[in-house]
What does this fold into?
Amino acid sequence: MSIRVRFAPSPTGVLHIGSVRTALFNWLFARHNSGKFLLRIEDTDKLRSTDENTKLIFEILKWLEIDWDEEPVIQSSRIERHKEIAEGLVKQGKAYYCYCSPEELESKKEEAKKKGIPYKYDGTCQNRTDIPEGINPVIRLKADIAGATTIHDLVQGEVTVKNSQLDDMILLRSDGTPTYMLSVVVDDHDMGITHVIRGDDHLTNTFRQIQIYKACGWDIPTFGHIPLIYGPDGSKLSKRHGAVSANDYKELGYLPEAIFNYLLRLGWSHGDDEIISKENAINWFDFDNVGKSPSRFDMAKLQNLNAYYMRQKENSSLFDVLKYYINTQLTKQQEAYILKGLNSLKERAKTLVELADASNIYINAPTSFDESCSKYSTPKHIDALKQVINIIEEMNVLIEEELCSRVKELARSLDMKLVDIAQAIRGALSGKLVSPSVFEVMSIIGKTESTLRIKRYISYYDD
It folds into this structure.
């Protein structure tokens, strides 16, 4: 059997990071088994679905290199097919028209509430003969309430539900639009989906959808329900924990490689391996190693992974990505400066946003200085900086090691610590007291720019 799986996001909101993990697990399962990974956009909620959200779904999947094998299915284009199935079930006596008004249904719900029992539709219209006029009916499935339904879930194992817990669900609304339950089953059948892999919040839906499969006489796919992702506090991951949109993580400066690796390890494991390449992920992935318990999102772990992948990335490739976050038009010289300094810059950054901020030392000379710099603006520091300028002017080319050696000699002659002079230089070069090696920075930006920045610092503090 050729495996066919699907990812079916709804563009009613931004793509949740948990949904991306679902896409990833589906994709890996397909690739591991030489199967097909399909994409379906479930946009039948026209009031809340947007073209922008649909576009973002495609962009994020492409960004993560989660590719699909066939033309994406747009669910709203298949409404007539959904209606055809519902009406066909009525003709076969497996579904029926329900004329109950919203008021009647609400009354029944209130009655069940008073009795302290769960509400389920009582089948009033199954054999109704008094057809009221002027009411557009819904179509309900005749549920098989005898016995029980058991699924052999790829993640949860064997799960059984008594059919008596199910009711005659609505397949087609009074306005002629299909419900989620009907659309999903019809689309999965028509797309030839063999395995439905999704969040475990859909587990209850599965037993209701199996009723539709059976009524239609269709093969039932294998199901796998992945535990949800929780926040650090153990509650379902939400905006109060920070970013939840996959696009947010992109904007925050995370590499797709890091997101891929982190989401892979969020609920799946392969021994003690933490850093896992895409090739190994495809070779190793199976559902035997997907946990049954919810995973907790750990931002610190994601940051550490991201830092690792930034350090591993070739500087030219990293710089190509970095330019998006710098968000300013760079000159050729500024680009050359950043590329030369990238090895040191990326050792200190955990995200591309941090890396872009650190790169500013090669883009803009400081026009103001952090208050912390004032500690290194005493007359002694200013005098030392003036002598650093003399050192710079004596050198033909600024070489990092030679600069460091000359400034060390200066520190000894002035009975100062090297760090004190270096911090004064750092303040002059960057406007703050955090930067890569000042001698490396000076060797990259050169004599003229180094001198200019130090003189500006001296002028700022030396009244």
Summary: The longest strand covers residues 36-41. The first helix runs from residue 17 to 32. DSSP finds 17 helices and twelve strands in the chain.
